[in-house]
Design goal:
Number of strands: 32
CATH architecture of the domain at 127-386 and 408-418: 7 Propeller
Largest sheet: 4 strands, antiparallel
CATH superfamily of the domain at 127-386 and 408-418: YVTN repeat-like/Quinoprotein amine dehydrogenase
Radius of gyration: 40 Å
Number of helices: 16
Strand content: 25-35%
Helix content: 25-40%
CATH class of the domain at 127-386 and 408-418: Mainly Beta
Length: 760
């Protein structure tokens, strides 16, 4: 049966028995289906929570690391904490004061010449020694010493050394016993006239020196020395005397421990410097500290820096500096500390570092660190009218004595040398000709001052990153562009995994090869490297011209991108040509020796392990990362954009540079930033290939030290929670912050680029 238009009528549905429900095409009401859907929901929910929890755990871990680093760095910013402890009563005024290293006993010198050993726990006098019966004029303790010295009215200087002998019982209890060796008397004025201001340095009976201004204004110096014959054991004692010409009346006088330098201060603010090793025929060097009287002087540890206090409250630090291009040294005012409101009366230096305490006549007390010019604490003296003051040998306490009272001050001052200027600014260190950025954490003696400037490390980090990316960015991006857009897919299937496997090479292996093989070879063939930048582009360009000159019917027989074989041959030929012509090029362009030419023409010295070596080695490590990510970015450009560009008449190169490259730019930028992060955090390559020298020099022919390499080198030697330890954590925080800021900025730029080219 057909309809009027000849078509077949629609098939009728089969009849349903009465009461039967219609069958649905979906089986949602099946128990098995319901269980499967429920299981999927549970799995999906669990997976979502696992992924979310993992992400949150990673964020929490990073924040935990950051929080831990901040906790380790924070103590560097704290000032000194001062607590006034117990005080003991003394029965007489105190002219001079010294304590033992355990801070259990103090030696006090009374105006009459009587030395009393006072137990600090209860103020009991446990020992006494009469230094001089009568005629004592002035007394003092040399900076950092344990000898009590005094000048007399008959032209002598008398010194009493105090030996603190410690005994330990079986239960660990410590007992300190003071001992008095035979005092030393040095005659300075043969006419037995009263001495003026004086200074002394005592190193037992074998070595002692004293100096004083005599009544006629001349300055007398007497040195004693005992030398033991290494073969016979005979001890030869000698005494030498110097007599310098008359000078204005001195208010202060100091002699260093080496007994080579003698310094004096006057009421008119002048500083006299006598060099004792030159004899008394040479006049002193005179330097003005200002128009105000010099009221206090003291050496800092090492006896090279001189702290000068004046009547107007000025505090300054001086030391000898060799002017550029000259042979001699000039006493130079290097550091100025905050001025007090009244005259400086007492200065007590630390025996551990360049910390010192200064007190003025108004009772104000200040704790300072000279090199960083940092005021650690300022407040009132615990003893009114204090006449003597000293820092404990460990630097964790100070003792202030005055009429009838001796007070102890506890000092918590673990990191006095750290300040923003010391970490990132130029600092004038002892022995330097000018302020500099310097990192040198350890030295040969306790007199050494650590130099902890992070600026050379930051510059070194950026320098190494710059030279590595200078090589890695063009090769990585252009290589990815060629591989993704011009290379045959069959060849790409082999080349891309090979390049990515390069990223798995251990950096220690690359550093080893760079330091022991590449650096010496580059030193020998550096002209060849320069020649490569001329020869390789030329050979590759000529190869491309030659390939394009081949008739299309011949080129068409080969797969697209197979010309890479010719380019590889051109690269090999360029390498051979550059190295074969290296000697000829060096003789023609650099007079036969590149290193000599470089030093003579530019003044730069060629170090074997330099930034060029690091740039090549670290660039080799970064190229695979940039290549892999950039290749993915190029390959992910929609094919309709490429096809549309080609269909509109653009050639392959125009399509790549004007369509594909802008569209892939967010991914390329991400590749560069990830490569930057890889380079900035690299440790082993820069550690092994740079010489690891923390210098401030942008020359590509010098080495450097990075933040990461510095942490690896220094952390094994850093005392736990010491200044160096916490400074290394600060370097880690700086590296963390630097990468965070750069990655954040990179992500913002990437997002902007992504939005800009999203409509293409």
């Amino acid at each position: 049966m057909t309809t009027l238009d000849g078509s077949l009528p629609p098939a009728s549905a089969p009849a349903r028995p009465a009461g039967e429900r219609p069958q649905s095409s979906k089986r949602s009401d099946s128990p098995a289906t319901a269980r499967t859907a429920s299981r999927r929901l549970v799995v999906d929910r669990v997976a979502r929570w696992v992924v979310t929890g993992g992400g949150m755990a990673i964020i929490a871990s990073i924040l935990g690391i950051l929080f831990f680093i901040l906790l380790e760095v924070l103590p560097l910013t704290r000032s000194a904490r001062i607590e006034v402890g117990a005080s003991v009563a003394v029965s007489h005024p105190v002219e001079a004061l010294t304590v033992d290293e355990y801070q259990t006993h103090a030696a006090l010198l009374a105006p009459g010449g009587n030395i009393q050993i006072v137990r600090l726990a209860d103020g009991a006098v446990v020992a006494e020694r009469q230094l001089l019966g009568e005629g004592l004029l002035a007394a003092r303790v040399p900076p950092g010493g344990t000898a009590v010295t005094a000048s007399t009215s008959d032209g002598r200087v008398i010194a009493q050394t105090i030996d603190w002998r410690a005994e330990f019982a079986t239960d660990g209890a410590r007992t300190v016993h003071p001992e008095f060796p035979e005092p030393i008397a040095i005659e300075l004025d043969a006419e037995h006239r009263p001495l003026g201001v004086f200074a002394a340095q005592i190193d037992g009976k074998d070595r002692a020196a004293a100096a004083a201004q005599l009544a006629d204004g001349t300055v007398a110096v007497v040195k004693r020395e005992a030398v033991e014959n290494a073969f016979s054991g005979e001890i030869v004692r000698s005494e030498s005397a110097l007599r310098f010409a008359s000078v204005p009346k001195l208010t202060q006088l100091l002699i260093d421990r080496d007994q080579i330098n003698l310094y004096g201060g006057t009421a008119s603010g002048e500083i006299y410097w006598w060099k004792l090793d030159q004899g008394d025929d040479f006049p002193p060097q005179v330097t003005s500290a200002g128009a105000f009287e010099i009221t206090a002087m003291s050496f800092l540890i090492g006896d090279r820096s001189l702290v000068v206090g004046q009547a107007n409250g000025n505090l300054s630090v001086w030391f000898p500096v060799r002017p550029t291009g000259e042979e001699g040294f000039l006493l130079t005012r290097v550091h100025d500390l905050p001025r007090h409101t009244s005259a400086i009366s007492l200065i007590a230096p630390s025996q551990r570092n360049r910390t010192f305490i200064a007190k003025d006549t108004g009772g104000e007390l200040g704790i300072y660190f000279s090199t960083s010019e940092r005021t650690l604490w300022k407040g009132r003296s615990p003893v009114e009218g204090a006449t003597a003051m000293t820092l404990s040998p460990k630097g964790d306490g100070a003792f202030v004595a005055g009429p009838g009272k001796l007070a102890f001050v506890s000092i918590a001052n673990p990191h006095p040398e750290i300040s923003w200027k010391a970490l990132f600014g130029k600092v004038f260190y002892e022995g330097y000709e000018q302020p500099e950025y310097a990192w040198q954490s350890t030295g040969g003696t306790d007199d050494f001052e650590p130099k902890l400037s992070l600026t050379p490390l930051v510059i070194g980090t950026l320098k190494g990153t710059f030279y590595s990316l200078l090589l890695a960015i063009p090769l990585g991006i252009l290589g990815a562009m060629f591989a993704s857009q011009f290379l045959h897919p069959k060849l790409l299937a082999y080349i891309k995994p090979t390049v990515e496997i390069m990223a798995a090479l251990p950096s220690v292996v690359l550093g080893f090869l760079a330091g022991l093989w590449l650096a010496p070879m580059l030193e020998r063939y550096f002209p060849a490297l320069i020649l490569l930048f001329l020869v390789l582009p030329l050979f590759v360009w000529l190869t491309g011209v030659a390939w394009n000159a081949v008739p299309l019917r011949i080129r068409g027989r080969y797969p697209s991108g197979s010309e890479i074989v010719l380019y590889l041959l051109a690269v090999v030929a360029g390498l051979l040509t550059a190295f074969r012509c290296s000697e000829l090029f060096e003789r023609f362009a650099f007079g036969g020796n590149f290193q000599s030419w470089l030093l003579g023409v530019t003044g730069m010295q060629y170090d074997q392990r330099n930034a060029v070596v690091v740039g090549l080695a670290m660039g080799f490590a970064v190229i695979p990362i940039i290549f892999a990510i950039s290749e993915d970015a190029f390959s992910n450009v929609p094919r309709n954009l490429v096809s549309g560009s080609l269909a509109l008449g653009a050639n392959r190169w125009q399509t790549v540079t004007r369509v594909i490259l802008p569209t892939a730019s967010p991914g390329i930028f991400s590749a560069i930033m990830i490569g930057f992060g890889r380079a900035i955090g690299e440790t082993m390559i820069v550690l092994m290939a740079t010489g690891n020298t923390p210098i401030m020099d942008l020359s590509p022919f010098n080495g450097f030290r990075t933040l990461s390499a510095n942490i690896a080198v220094e952390i094994p030697e850093a005392p736990f929670r010491g200044t160096l330890y916490r400074t290394l954590f600060l370097a880690a925080l700086l590296l963390f912050t630097l990468t965070f800021i750069i990655n954040t900025a990179a992500e913002l730029v990437r997002q902007r680029l992504r939005k800009k080219y999203a409509q293409l």
